[in-house]
């Protein structure tokens, strides 16, 4: 496709059937939702273009990469680190099963990081091939909306490409949010945490959500001292209260220092290059690394959505209907940028249903009921359906709760103190 | 004097007779009322069900026993008094479950079991049975122990390094394993006690320890007990064919309790027990050789799973000798063993283990004399309600050789308790029973194999996934995962689900609910995956690997439907 200049005539085209568009679909963002929507739409016969920022493990306004958050700085590298960290506990347990292992087993952080990077680069390549195999045209650069049927891609060298598209799909995902306290520039987010040069011997994690809990588990599993600070009584707000308590207990059992009802008020650099984090209880924590796992926000700032009149909600997420359509009929959005259920398989579902709706003549709404998911703390938590609190709230009648708390067989010999809990609220 | 006896619960024993029942609940009932239990302490005369637990500390005397054994009526005489409503022989999975539940339903129950030993025999066993003492539990602990060597290897790829390669101390494992078994057998005894079940431990003696005298009487070490119903749940034991040198052979009981680790072991057998032990000893760094009569291991399992698991096990260093039948075992001067097979002789084994099947423990129970029919394997023949050919005698668990799994024995025992004591005749259901093989990598399965599905449904669609899991891409090890869905082409119901790879047993348990519920491929596809996991593959299989059509003429009609349903 050759470079094209903006043409007023084409923008004002009203008869969709007669209009000649460069693409049937142009997707901004090649992450889970964007790639899925592109491939499936192309499979249904659509001519599809997609743009994505150049690859880099640490994202910013100008770098990202095909594969998106999940592949490059989310699910995949996270799981790799969880695997790496889990071995620590396993090696401990092995002793009670008769294994004689050195008192102190060495861990090479740089090796793990390198392996992780190799893997995400490999996956990044695979995603590019997936797009190519589906006949989707990939552009590297920053995408912006120009009008209801017009996009612009700013390439690395600054040149702009303009394309017309019958439909535009916004799938730019989200980015880590940093709280603004004095010294916040000393803190890192999950992006950096997944690519740290040096292993932090002492880490302070601020946040109570799954990202905070996962990183606390990862670093602790690899031997770091970890302080986890969160605002509520328990981490994982929104999850079943009983399960939150179990997770907290297990974290403590593994040696994570929990600081409930605690916030950080400022960060300062110390003389020996560490960071002093001050809590709102007046306590000072000295750490090599301070991680802000304080939420993620949709990437909508630089899209120029105002130009087309696309509405956002208060959080900055793109507002969409049940079919993932924005208030502009030709503009759609899927994935974290819409802030519905921020999970890769859900973005995949939204992308699939979008393709079916728009290019397969089968309007279908993604179903958010009973979506299972997991928190990869060590040990992990998995969920499907309602929490007990939600069940009580939503039930038309009484609910029954069945729980099972036990010491799994493996731990009876290993001596590990994790507890396993299953909980089943039934309506 | 028998140990830990508890007295029978009088009210329930006589509960069938309304007149007597009324009388016993009257407060001023004199002790001397025509009461065969005259010699009992006062507290027992007016005892409603809720006092059952307090009876556990009383012993009853010989006099009582003699009076109770007078009856030898074969019929279902409701006015007759029995010592117990139910007498169970064998305190394993099935027996304990049936006894506990029966007791909770108000029955008076006694159970007898041989004294504890890690090795089973005519005179030794233990409360908890095979599962707890010589099967599932110790097996799983050994599997856990043996998996670590693979984990140490994997961890290298994740940055872990060991100055010295970890070594394994066998005696630590045995000691910890045995401590766990002692703990569990104690728990089972408490479970029985807390349910008010009388536990009678038969003392080990060569010859019979327990025997059915007549359809309502059991003899335990010379003591006789009468019961309205008798339940036989004596389980099974390893079978070793008699060939020259078989005295040098160990079975699974012994393998779980060896004094030292085998350096080089021959395992004869191709079933799940052989494979699980092969994985265990291989993981603990023994040199393992598996000898099977067939071409492939795990006869009866899905063909693709059979191929996949042996390939993965070979890659981990286990050597398979296929189509070889054992003929003799020879012991050499240095103490090592050789195995002579139909194809030659392999030498240098420190141990030779036969995992060549298990047989029901039906010898010396007095079954033939009392008229209980056995099949040619020695298993007790039962109907759908677990009733034997004798109306008052029932059997559950491995002794009936139906589906030899603990949860199935639990199901059979539970169903029997309902049938007998809840007035709810209940048949155990054997459809879609999931199971696992804890070899390494393990297998999980539920429903039909592809071969069985073709037999039953004719037209089927098969979806498979064979991939390198994320962990392996980093560890660099050749581990792979194989997953398979089998659908009835016509209904699109998932009739078979198979997996071989890490965590298969845990994963298949969840999906077994879906298969049992008769869910379709569309239901699976509508279920969002959990990411990143291996199990999400089961809900994201888009393209059928193959479609089997028995009748070519059905091809045209169903083709477009199946294509649409497959979501291509």
TrEMBL record, chain A:
It comes from Ziziphus jujuba (Chinese jujube). It comes from the Eukaryota. Pfam families: Pyr_redox_2. The keyword Metal-binding does not apply. Its cofactor is FAD. This is Glutathione reductase, cytosolic isoform X2. Keywords: Disulfide bond, FAD, Flavoprotein, Oxidoreductase, Redox-active center. Residues 23-351 form the FAD/NAD(P)-binding domain.
TrEMBL record, chain B:
GO terms for cellular component: cytosol; mitochondrion. Pfam families: Pyr_redox_2 (PF07992), Pyr_redox_dim (PF02852). NAD(+) binds at residues 269-276, 357. SUPFAM superfamilies: FAD/NAD(P)-binding domain (SSF51905), FAD/NAD-linked reductases, dimerisation (C-terminal) domain (SSF55424). FAD binds at residues 140, 204, 398. Binds 1 FAD per subunit. GO terms for biological process: cell redox homeostasis; cellular response to oxidative stress; glutathione metabolic process. Residues 433-541 form the Pyridine nucleotide-disulphide oxidoreductase dimerisation domain. GO terms for molecular function: flavin adenine dinucleotide binding; glutathione-disulfide reductase (NADPH) activity. It comes from the Eukaryota. PROSITE patterns: PYRIDINE_REDOX_1 (PS00076). This is Glutathione reductase, chloroplastic isoform X1. It comes from Ziziphus jujuba (Chinese jujube).
């Amino acid at each position: 496709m050759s470079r094209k200049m903006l043409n007023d005539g084409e923008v004002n085209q009203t008869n969709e059937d007669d209009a000649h568009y460069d693409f049937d679909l142009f997707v901004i963002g090649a992450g889970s939702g964007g790639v899925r929507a592109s491939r499936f739409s192309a499979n249904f016969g659509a001519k599809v273009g997609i743009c994505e920022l150049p690859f880099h493990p640490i994202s910013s306004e100008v770098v990202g990469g095909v594969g998106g958050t999940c592949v490059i700085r989310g699910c995949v590298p996270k799981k790799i680190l969880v695997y790496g960290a889990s071995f620590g506990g396993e090696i401990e347990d092995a002793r009670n099963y008769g294994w004689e292992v050195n008192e102190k087993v060495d861990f090479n952080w740089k090796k793990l990081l390198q392996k992780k990077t190799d893997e995400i680069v490999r996956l990044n390549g695979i995603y590019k091939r997936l797009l190519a195999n589906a006949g989707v045209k990939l552009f590297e650069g920053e995408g912006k909306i120009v009008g209801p049927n017009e996009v612009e891609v700013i390439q690395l060298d600054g040149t702009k490409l303009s394309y017309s598209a019958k439909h535009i799909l916004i799938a730019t995902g989200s980015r880590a949010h940093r709280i603004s306290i004095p010294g916040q520039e000393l803190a890192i987010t999950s992006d950096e945490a997944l690519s740290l040069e040096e292993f932090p011997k002492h880490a302070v994690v601020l946040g109570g959500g799954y990202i905070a809990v996962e990183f606390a588990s990862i670093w602790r599993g690899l031997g770091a001292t970890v302080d986890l600070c969160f605002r509520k009584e328990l981490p994982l707000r929104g999850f079943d209260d009983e399960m939150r308590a179990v997770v907290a207990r297990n974290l403590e059992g593994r040696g994570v220092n929990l600081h409930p009802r605690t916030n950080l008020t400022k960060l300062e650099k110390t003389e020996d290059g560490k960071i002093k984090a001050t809590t709102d209880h007046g306590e000072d924590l000295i750490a090599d690394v301070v991680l802000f796992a304080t939420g993620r926000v949709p990437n909508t700032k630089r899209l120029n959505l105002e130009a087309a009149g696309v509405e956002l909600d208060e959080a900055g997420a793109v507002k969409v209907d049940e079919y993932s359509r924005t208030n502009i009929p030709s503009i759609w959005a899927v994935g974290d940028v819409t802030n519905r259920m921020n999970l890769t398989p859900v973005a995949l579902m939204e992308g699939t249903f979008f393709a079916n709706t728009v290019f397969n003549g089968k309007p279908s709404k993604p179903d958010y009921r009973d979506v299972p998911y997991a928190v990869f703390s060590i040990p992990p938590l998995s969920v499907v359906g309602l929490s007990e609190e939600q069940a009580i709230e939503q039930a038309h009648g009484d609910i029954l709760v069945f729980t099972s708390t036990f010491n799994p067989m493996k731990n009876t010999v290993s001596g590990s103190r994790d507890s396993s809990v299953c909980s089943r609220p039934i309506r | 004097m028998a140990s830990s006896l508890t007295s029978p619960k009088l009210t329930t024993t006589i509960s069938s007779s309304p007149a007597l029942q009324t009388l016993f609940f009257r407060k001023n009932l004199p002790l001397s009322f025509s009461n065969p239990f005259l010699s009992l302490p006062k507290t027992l005369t007016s005892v409603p069900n809720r006092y059952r637990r307090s009876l556990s500390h009383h012993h009853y005397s010989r006099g009582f026993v003699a009076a109770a054994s007078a009856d030898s009526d074969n019929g279902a005489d409701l006015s007759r008094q029995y010592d117990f409503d139910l007498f169970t022989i064998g305190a394993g999975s099935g027996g304990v479950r049936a006894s506990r539940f029966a007791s909770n339903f108000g029955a008076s129950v006694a159970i007898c079991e041989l004294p504890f030993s890690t090795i089973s025999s005519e005179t030794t066993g233990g409360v908890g049975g095979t599962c707890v003492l010589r099967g599932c539990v110790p097996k799983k602990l050994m599997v856990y122990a043996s998996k670590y060597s693979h984990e140490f290897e994997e961890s290298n790829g994740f940055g872990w390094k060991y100055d010295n390669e970890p070594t394994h101390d066998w005696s630590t494992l045995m000691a910890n394993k045995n401590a766990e078994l002692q703990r569990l057998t104690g728990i089972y005894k408490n479970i029985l006690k807390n349910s008010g079940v009388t536990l009678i431990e038969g003392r080990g003696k060569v010859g019979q320890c327990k025997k059915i005298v007549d359809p309502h009487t059991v003899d335990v070490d010379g003591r006789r007990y009468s019961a309205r119903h008798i339940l036989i749940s004596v389980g099974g034991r390893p079978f070793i064919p008699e060939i020259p040198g078989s005295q040098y052979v160990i079975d699974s009981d012994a393998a779980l309790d060896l004094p030292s680790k085998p350096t080089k072991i021959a395992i004869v057998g191709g079933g799940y027990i052989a494979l699980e032990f092969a994985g265990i000893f291989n993981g603990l760094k023994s040199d393992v050789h598996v000898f099977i009569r067939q071409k492939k291991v795990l006869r009866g399992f899905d063909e693709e799973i059979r191929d996949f698991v042996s390939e993965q096990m070979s890659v981990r260093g286990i050597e398979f000798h296929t189509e070889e039948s054992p003929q003799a075992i020879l012991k050499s001067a240095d103490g090592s063993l050789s195995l002579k097979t139909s194809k030659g002789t392999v030498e240098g084994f420190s141990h030779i283990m036969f995992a060549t099947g298990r047989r029901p423990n039906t010898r010396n129970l007095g079954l033939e004399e009392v008229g209980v029919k056995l099949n040619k394997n020695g298993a007790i023949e039962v109907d759908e309600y677990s009733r034997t050919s004798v109306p008052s005698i029932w059997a559950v668990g491995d002794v009936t050789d139906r589906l030899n799994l603990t949860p199935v024995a639990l199901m059979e025992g539970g169903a029997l308790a309902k049938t007998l004591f809840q007035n709810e005749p209940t048949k155990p259901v054997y459809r879609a029973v999931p199971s696992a093989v804890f070899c390494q990598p393990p297998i999980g399965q539920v429903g039909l194999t592809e071969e069985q599905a073709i037999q039953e449904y004719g037209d089927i669609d098969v979806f498979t996934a064979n991939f390198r899991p994320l962990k392996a891409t980093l560890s660099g090890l050749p581990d792979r995962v194989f997953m398979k869905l089998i659908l009835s082409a016509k209904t699109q119901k998932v009739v078979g689900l198979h997996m071989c790879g890490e965590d298969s047993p845990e994963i298949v348990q969840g999906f077994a609910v879906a298969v049992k519920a008769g869910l379709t491929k569309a239901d699976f596809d509508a279920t969002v995956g959990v990411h990143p996991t291996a199990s999400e593959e089961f809900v994201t299989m888009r393209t059928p690997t193959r479609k089997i059509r028995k009748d070519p003429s059905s091809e045209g009609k169903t083709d477009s439907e199946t294509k649409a349903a497959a979501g291509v």
